[in-house]
Amino acid sequence: MQRQPLIDAPPASVQRAPLDERPGWLLSTRSTALVLSLGASDALLLAYWGPNGGTQRAADYLPYRSGNRRSERLFLDGLPLAYPVYGEASFKEPCLVVARADGSRVTRLEFVEDRIRDSPSGSVLELIFRDELTGLVVEHRYSVFPELDLVARSVRVENTGAEALTLERVLSGALPLPPGDYDAYTLHGQWGREFELRTRPLLPGKFTTESRRGTSSHEAHPWFAVRPRGEVAEHQGPTWCGSLAWSGNWVGVFETERNDSVSIAMGIQPFDFAWRLGPGAEFSAPELVGGYTDGGLGGAARLLHVYDERVQLPENQRARLRPVLYNSWEATHFDVRAEQQLELARRAASIGVELFVVDDGWFGARNDDRAALGDWTVNTDKLPGGLKPLIDEVHRLGMQFGIWVEPEMVNPESDLYRAHPEWAYHAVGREPTYGRNQLVLNFAREDVQAAIHAQLQHLLTEHGTIDFIKWDHNRAWTEVGWPEQPGQQREVWVRHVRGLYDLLARLRSEFPKLLIESCAGGGGRADLGMLRWTDQVWTSDNTDAADRLAIQYGFSRAHAPRTMVNWVTDVPNQQTGRVAPLEFRFHVAMQGVLGVGGDIGRWPAEDLATAGRLIESYKQLRPLVQQGRQYWLRPPAPIGPCAVQYVSATADETVVFLYQIRGLVGAGMRRARLHGLLPARRYRREGDGAESTGAALMGAGIPLDVLTQHGLDWRSRVEVWRGL
Ligand code: GLA
Fold first, then answer.
1. Which member of 160, 190, 233, 306 has the greatest number of CB atoms within 10 A?
2. What pLDDT score does 171 carry?
3. In this predicted model, what pLDDT tens digit does every residue of 491-543 receive, in sequence order?
4. Mutate which of 326, 436, 472, 475 to test ligand 1's pocket (most atoms within 8 Å of Cβ)?
């Protein structure tokens, strides 16, 4: 439940609002307000972020202000610092650390000016600070999205002085919260079990969540939510959230210290990072998108979903419904052959698939994972006529054609590596560590980017229209050395990610119709940064329907269902050996972007008919699932029911997916109370024609347990209610 806005017409979303006779700013959205101000020594304070109180006076939000004890009243560490800077009198986790040539690392910033401007979706506040001694300029940007209840923060630093500086750390921002007891929510996992939602109390000391693996990682996801301790309601209760738009190494530090003040700092990982900022040079830190809601974790998720949909996702494909896809990986692995792929394509078309994707194994000397990454040319032993006849036939069958690539990787057993061994990360005199028999290409190098771009451009133009690519990344980085450029060694982690973004941006502008899926051995790089340049993500290599429920629940805490690709695969499941019924597998995969990944060449006619029927019903529900608002009514559990609901923007229809992996003998009939409907509207259930009002469906609910006469396990049901 979203709080009703307290004010009818929000004033301008950024206003100057002095506080204690010092400059201050009030950032307002439909339901929230955020107060920024200057404290002692021009420190930027973020003293309030919470419900919109319908006032334009910053002081109204801060009837009481705390400081440090008298003898340390000049210290800043007990204050709500929006961006702790190393060199000021604070002991918090700093967001900015800058070294001078003489080794000094004391930075002192003075406020210079503010700039307020309108943007198509809201207003932007820029706050400019400068270090008189070094000429370092720090520009904070707060982009306010009044309709989305979100603020995107970023930081740009520029060296306007004469001496070279070294950036040792430039995080994107800190979120200070008033003294209190809080629980932090973060997402963790590993290969095959990504996006596990974890919670822990914030206590004095620090908790760090991060990646040092090169990608944003399976192990931790650059997202968080914080709630008052013990508040667990899915749809109500104060909740702050943040999501970092960065696909490389990152860090999030949760700290409780002086005056019980809580501070959460997030940004590019400072470990093994340093950036030379010569005179005139600048550096931008990625956006940290954050918000406040009193709608619980579900409310926070929906804010971020809308951000994906309206702001972050590539604009040219943003509104497009994602096609139902078939991917042949689990069916054929590396054994890709023309006739067998054509056979699969014909089957796929017959059950209503719209996009046929050939996965790994179609290129170079690729017969297993030991060779060919880096050689993005067609293997004509496997595809004797090349790709074109396959692509043409797929198009003739009425489907789009997609293909798998892993452009940042190289096998030593490849023409690319034999010609340019120095293009892979390496450290002189050290043996490389192989992961899946492959090394990581140094995407910080422009020649590497150019060579891979040329190969991909050739691939995308020479064989007829390729409509989709799945961009994979299958190993963490080790020996991340660039001995030819010792001066940029510690810039590599960032330059690589920027090189990746540049290449994706280039391909998008050259091939505007191309749809791109991000994959990293499953969901190892499924972050907000990737969603700027790719349209959807593969959340896990684990396609087991039971595990997938939990993975999809976790993923959808942070990202929109329209970005979440799920396949229906064969049983026993390749990763877990579990056997879930076909309909259950479909119902799970229908929660986002539906795909099929089983060996449909071997599916019996009965299963193909079921698949055809369910794909057709998914297409009917697709606008609701991909463009509606999502409400988890009950999270996935190993025993007992779970349910997730999607409501259209106008609340005139809704679909509820209900699942029960294992049921309990003698369990009573529980109810799932629906959300987001119009109370006075009458709705009719598809199938049996039952009718009810929105108020009754939200108050009394629908049966949650999935009872049938045929056993308690692996039950699923879909209910669709349409407004009359
Ligand atoms: C990764 C991906 C899989 C598949 C294989 C191919 O593991 O996550 O979906 O594409 O690579 O090698």
1. 306
2. 98
3. 999 999 999 999 999 999 999 999 999 999 999 999 999 999 999 999 999 99
4. 472
Distance 471 CA to ligand 1 centre (A): 10
Which tokens hold the place of 387?
A: 């790709």
Residue 492's closest CA among 560, 425, 406, 407?
425
Return the pLDDT at 3. 41
Cis amide leading into 572 (omega within 30):
yes
Query: For residue 231, what are the CA distances in angstroms to 150, 184, 201, 242, 492?
Result: 22, 11, 11, 18, 42
Question: Which whole-number Å values give the CA distances from 416 to 374, 479, 678, in the listed order?
Answer: 6, 19, 60
Neighbours of 357 (CB within 10 A): 25
Residue-wise DSSP of 531-587: GGT-SEEE--S---HHHHHHHHHHHTTTS-GGGEEEEE--SS-TTT-----HHHHHH
Neighbour-count burial of 113, counting CB atoms closer than 10 A to its CB (0-12 exposed, 13-18 middle, 19+ buried): exposed
Long-range contacts of 504-511 (CB under 8 A, 24+ apart): 504/471, 504/533, 504/534, 505/533, 506/453, 507/453, 507/456, 507/457, 507/460, 508/314, 508/316, 508/533, 510/457, 510/460, 511/460
Rounded distance from Cα 642 to ligand 1 centre (Å): 29
Ligand 1 centroid to residue 630 C-alpha, Å? 28
Strands 536-538 and 564-568: parallel
pLDDT at 2: 42
Contact 675, 701 (CB under 8 A): no
Q: What is the pLDDT of residue 709?
A: 60
Do the Cβ atoms of 391 and 464 come closer than 8 Å? yes
Of all protein residues, the one whose alpha carbon is nearest to atom 7 of ligand 1 is 521
User: How far is C-alpha 122 from the chain's CA centre?
Assistant: 22
| Ligand 1, atom 9: closest residue by C-alpha | 541
Amino acid at position 650, single letter: T
3-state secondary structure of 144: strand
pLDDT at 660: 94
Ligand 1, CB within 6 Å, residue ranges: 329, 359-360, 404, 472, 474, 519, 521-522, 538, 541
Contact between residue 11 and residue 56 where contact means Cβ atoms under 8 Å apart: yes
> Active-site residues: which are they?
472, 541
The ranges of the chain with pLDDT < 50 are 1-9
User: pLDDT tens for residues 347-368?
Assistant: 999 999 999 999 999 999 999 9
Rounded distance from Cα 521 to ligand 1 centre (Å): 5
Atom of ligand 1 nearest to the CA of 541: 8
Cα-to-centroid distance, 632 and ligand 1 (Å): 29
At 593-615, the pLDDT tens digits run 999 999 999 999 999 999 999 99
For a mutational test of ligand 1's pocket, the pick from 329, 475, 537, 596, i.e. the residue with the most ligand atoms closer than 8 A to its C-beta, is 329
Q: Which atom of ligand 1 sits closest to the CA of residue 404?
A: 10
Q: Are 536 and 322 in contact (CB under 8 A)?
A: yes
Residue 339, class by beta-carbon neighbours within 10 Å (0-12 exposed, 13-18 middle, 19+ buried)? exposed
